[in-house]
Amino acid sequence: MSAPERESGSDLGRPDIVSDPTPMDPAGSTGLACTRSADLLAAGSADLLATGSADLLGEGLTESLGRVAMLAGTALSAPRASVMFAGTYLLPQHGAARIDGPLSSFEQGLCADVVRSRDKLIIGDVRTDSRVSGNSRPDPASMLAWAGVPVHDQDDHVTGVLWVADQVARRWSASDVTVLETLARLAWSEVSLRAALAHSAGRAALARTLEESLLPPRLPYIPGLQVAARYAAGGTGAGAGTGAGAGSEVGAGAGAGSEVGVGAWVGAGVGVGAGGEVLGDFCDVFPAANRTWGIVVGDVCGKGPAAAKRTALARYALRAVARRQTRPSLLLAGLNQVLLDWPTDDPRFLTAIYAAVRLVPGGTMVRISSAGHPLALVRTANGRVHQFGRPGDLLGVLAQPELHDSQRLLRSGDSLILFSDGVTEARRGADRELYGDERLRRLVAGLDDLTAVAMAEAIQLATLSFSDGRRSDDTVALVMKVPR
Questions:
Q1: Cβ atoms < 10 Å from Cβ of 277
Q2: Cα distance between residue 98 and residue 448, in whole Å
Q3: Separation in Å, CA 310 to CA 247, 363, 446
Q4: What is the pLDDT of residue 255?
Q5: What residue spans of 323-435 are helical by DSSP H?
Q6: Distance between CA 316 and CA 185 in Å, rounded?
Q7: Local structure of residue 256 (DSSP, 8 states)
Q8: How do beta strands 415-419 and 475-481 pair?
């Protein structure tokens, strides 16, 4: 499937991202630490940087990390933002977080403090924070508030720092910190992908690197709900690339429990097909603003490293935006703008469906929006199956896609089913007939009072059986159920 052309004028071009390689001056320490940040980077990252960070930065990582900083500054309405990676500071030169000139020694010292402590550093007002010594405080006109989080690799080594700063004192909320931590994971996914491309001898090694860096350990537990996901990557043989997700469950009248499926895929991220090819379907479940939960299933056009990069960007950008916005159509519109702004020589569109879930008296309120993605299904407690939502434009093509919101209350025994087009487009081997929407609806209607885990597994097994054990595309089935 080839990507359509972007709408004229939607590509903002490649940003001018510059690096400040000047070593940090220990004399400019904040008073918390006086060790150079580059010297403090964990020894465990040495293998990743074996060919030198300059080589990785020269392959486009500079632009990507600069964009992560810009995204952080925009999301938190902060006028200054940067990513420090391997002692080099990557500074956005456009957008809300533009930085003119090199960083001050004070800002570099704060980054060193984060690396040394391996933990976040949050300062609401440098004039009153007791951790900042008087003779090292910056000019109040340049910066009063600062928040930085470490960029961890998959082994929890610190490889860099993502930070934002403001010229006025401010109270950084827990949501602000979560946004930073989410985007720090996006920064590491960019680093790991570049490193994998530079070092791996084959696609299988690249796929393993991506799996390690992108996949969370399990889906979260949502009190009062059952949530389960099942993923199967496309391949040429029966069961090739098959994986499974984790479903958190609460039985009726029972305490919290969890069930983890068997397989290589857990929770969210990219799939790995036959021969180590990286595929583009993804799903995710995460806490969002105003006591809601975000649930998303998406499909990136194509396969391989470019699709994997788009997948990681989509997941982390959605998580960041969802900490400040709950309306699904606006969340998807925000992701669309990120995709259009992101520098790439290989633009790829994606489809996605996003549900904002909130527990209310009498059930669970679900607000949903689809961007070029198959619409969700709702199975009521009496076995009736309804399509839920309205079609919308896919993302990464148009500057202003048409997106809609739909809302519905799910009551005891009702289920919400999200899935990728690999489910309905599974083909039978003999006559190439599609599995189709009607078969899926009949299957879901006949699932009786199964758990979310059992429903997700039944969908995957039905499509695998229909296609004679051979999948041409990866498939995702995600089920959320309100238990009786």
A1: 20
A2: 56
A3: 25, 35, 36
A4: 30
A5: 328-341, 421-424
A6: 7
A7: E
A8: antiparallel
242 touches 225 (CB < 8 A): no
- Beta strands across the sheet bearing 226-232: 256-260, 246-250, 226-232, 475-481, 415-419, 376-379, 385-388
Question: Using an 8 Å Cβ cutoff, are 240 and 441 in contact?
Answer: no
Tokens 């690999």 -> residue: 422
Type of residue numbered 363: G
42/150 Cα distance (integer angstroms): 11
What radius of gyration do the chain's Cα atoms show?
A: 23
The arrangement of strands across the sheet holding 363-371 comes to 281-287, 293-300, 350-360, 363-371, 406-410
- Separation CA 297–CA 418 (nearest Å): 7
Q: In the prediction, which pLDDT does 130 show?
A: 82
Q: pLDDT means per 10 residues in the chain (484 residues)?
A: 38 28 38 43 39 49 77 84 73 48 74 89 89 64 85 82 91 88 82 65 54 58 92 52 36 32 34 51 89 93 71 84 92 91 73 97 96 97 96 92 97 96 87 91 94 94 86 85 94
Is the pTM higher than 0.85? The answer reads no
Comparing CA positions, the residue from 293, 353, 364, 282 lying closest to residue 322 is 293
CA-to-CA separations, 34 to 28, 39, 85, 327, in angstroms, rounded: 8, 11, 18, 45
- The rounded distance, in Å, linking the Cα atoms of 306 and 433 is 30
Residue recorded with tokens 């949501």: 175
CA distance 27 to 105: 8
How many residues appear in the chain?
Answer: 484
